Amino acid sequence: MNTYLQRCRSVLKDAVANIAVIGNESCDLDSAVSSIAFAFHLQHVPTLLGTWYKKDSTAVFPVLNVTRAELPLKTEVTFFIKRYGIALDDLICRDEIDWTGNQKALNIILVDHHVTKLEQSVIGIVDHRPIESNARFNANAFRTIELVGSCATLVGREIFNQEPIAKLPEGYTAAMDLLYGAIVLDTVNFSQQADKAKPLDYEIAAKIETYRNIREENRLTHREQLFQSLVQARSDVSELNAYQLLLKDLKIISQNNRIVSVPGFPMAVQNYIQLPDQMEHLVRFATNTGSNVVILLGLKVLPDGSVRRDVGIVPVDDEQLAEKIVTAIKACKEMNFELEELPTSDVKGKFFQQHNLKASRKQLMPIVKSVLSTLE
Question: pTM value?
């Protein structure tokens, strides 16, 4: 794996055709490791690429969908990648690619999302979220979109489907370990309370455990230790200020001349709004992103493994839009967020405790997009 990643930068200059495997803009652990592991696999087993792959002239490489300057904000990503001896300097970030250059053919494969603003040809998709209404697919591209707990699960299945476990070369151990960590974290360690894990998540995790020779009697302990280390790394925001926290896990929705930013926190929103200079940082963030509304999503994992979620909807300059979003979330029939409004005295916006722990940003985003689609 290390040798492959180190070669990616130099190979880019020489390859006749390039294929970038890129995750979503939040660049969370699932997106990051899915892009790394899948690119590594496709470079070595290019069956899915068909005619897009030419032996000895095509480079398949991962791209972290974040700028180099923002990468340190992804604390669980940097922690976990470095844990396997991968140097951050060997990874390619979004701002290190000339997306508009015409010197070489560049196609892209999307992991952990299926709609992109990039203008390159999308030749493949692996995603685990509901299909968006504005999604447009290349008929010739390979596509796997299934509602499972982690995109890493789908990448893992693609690897196992293409190549028998016994034939996987040594470099795959790091790829499998990276995918395994994302599955454990995304499913909240297969928590029944969170209800994120689907049968396929259990199946692929077990296959990776078998491949890595983790004995059955040790698996629960191994998962718990891994989960706690990743939660701790994700929650380690000791070096981040209130502005950086808004960028750590961010999704932005832009439609009908309105922008809604949806940052997620590894802490409760109620704790976030108590941080020093929080309001000044929020105003700066809204200005820099052009946001009309900011939706704050908090996720706090307690020492006993239970989860708490809360939400804050802050109208920057469009109170009517914020109200419409609140109304739409409360009225959603597909997923009841079970919101309980919390009193706030000195912070602009509406804040809620979310009692349905199964509802996440994945369910929230389509609701916000639906509201934006009705605006003139």
Answer: 0.84
